[in-house]
Amino acid sequence: MDKLLIRGGRQLQGEVLISGAKNAALPELCATLLTADPVTLLNVPRLQDVSTMLKLIRNMGVQIERRDDGSVLANAGGLTNPEAPYELVKTMRASVLALGPLLARFGEATVSLPGGCAIGSRPVDQHIKGLQAMGAEIVVEHGYMIAKLPKGWTRLKGARIATDMVTVTGTENFLMAAALAEGETILENAAQEPEIPDLAEMLIKMGAKIEGHGTSRIRIQGVEKLHGCTHQVVADRIETGTFLCAVAATGGDVVLKHGRADHLDAVVDKLRDAGATVEAIDGGIRVKSQGRLKAQSFRTTEYPGFPTDMQAQFMALNAISHGPSKVTETIFENRFMHVNELVRLGAHIQIDGKVSVIEGVPKLSGATVMATDLRASASLVIAGLVADGETVVDRIYHLDRGYDQMEAKLRGIGADIERIK
Ligand SMILES: CC(=O)N[C@H]1[C@@H](OP(=O)(O)OP(=O)(O)OC[C@H]2O[C@@H](n3ccc(=O)[nH]c3=O)[C@H](O)[C@@H]2O)O[C@H](CO)[C@@H](O)[C@@H]1O
Ligand SMILES: C=C(OP(=O)(O)O)C(=O)O
């Protein structure tokens, strides 16, 4: 199992190229299932979840060409097997995004229930309820969601869907299903994360009629058929935020090319309050930081609030900043798995239910720590970059699931980090 060996204490300087967003590329690869025409996605990140998604749709009969320039050409014209088996779904929850498009285009889908994961139970009841409101008949049997249209129907029917909570992949499933449904669908309480408007813009290029994406109320007028398109995946705001926190923690001066400050307002505000300089520049973001920053309290919420996917990385920064801070996780019930590992590196953190109480310490000391989930891994890497001596981060397959060559990018800006096979 691969590990990362980090020798801490180096400032970061230079330029990093931010990749396309994992959480936009995954639904957009599923959106290629909506048409028999070829679709080209540009700026697709090279990470494990994307490879898993490509395997999943290839297994359905989609022709895939992955090119060295980061583009993926997908042709679902010959799709014969509208199924997402457990073996693939169990390694990537985002496989549930196949449900909406398969049902919309083929009138049937069999998708394994994703099950829980390290950060929480993560049910898909809202996905099922929303698609049922559009007329789908869905039974859950032997661990699979088996979905089909009622007898005599050829398309889903538009509906008003008001979810119990804001759900990102739920909103994406409904958008894709509604694009090919008969009549109008209105999504109330829709997620507004930048990956949603990015998906909506891709669907519009394919011929979909969508309004209101990027707000909490999206209207979709279904069309009979969608066609091919070329679409560039939006820059990864969580990768961007991770590098911002890394530079804020180590000190230095780094340009994040293609990074979008306008997709990270809540994180950027906190970094500025902490004392880092973060400026939007032409084609990216520049971050500068010197000395110990001031710890910042925050609570995670839906976009445009502070993203849960940035909680662990910012907590690593708080751990070595001046003063006390409180971090409240409101989205997932078990997303503090990094805390005990940060404590092993010398951090002072106590968990009280949904709140972590952190007392900043002047330094951390390197040790062997274990990654437990994707963003927890990133927080341990940040901690390792500032800790005295050597830190080994074990189980980095979690990190590889969602970051495109993180250690090579960090090495490129001066970090002493290597992968041990
Ligand atoms: C591939 C992808 O884009 N993943 C992101 C997506 O996950 P994902 O789309 O799975 O997360 P959701 O937005 O759906 O989850 C939000 C909350 O709603 C709950 N819920 C959701 C659906 C449902 O049917 N029932 C239910 O109870 C979840 O358990 C969670 O507590 O948004 C999360 C919240 O920003 C991010 O952390 C993930 O990185
Ligand atoms: C939790 C995440 O992803 P997923 O929903 O794919 O598990 C994440 O990207 O931080």
From TrEMBL:
Gene Ontology MF, one: UDP-N-acetylglucosamine 1-carboxyvinyltransferase activity
Binding positions for UDP-N-acetyl-alpha-D-glucosamine per the UniProt entry: 93, 122-126, 309, 331
Binding site for phosphoenolpyruvate: 22-23
Localization annotation: Cytoplasm
Modified residues (2-(S-cysteinyl)pyruvic acid O-phosphothioketal): 117
Domain Enolpyruvate transferase: 7-410
Family: Belongs to the EPSP synthase family. MurA subfamily.
Descriptive protein name: UDP-N-acetylglucosamine 1-carboxyvinyltransferase
Lineage, broadest ranks: Bacteria, Pseudomonadati, Pseudomonadota, Betaproteobacteria, Burkholderiales
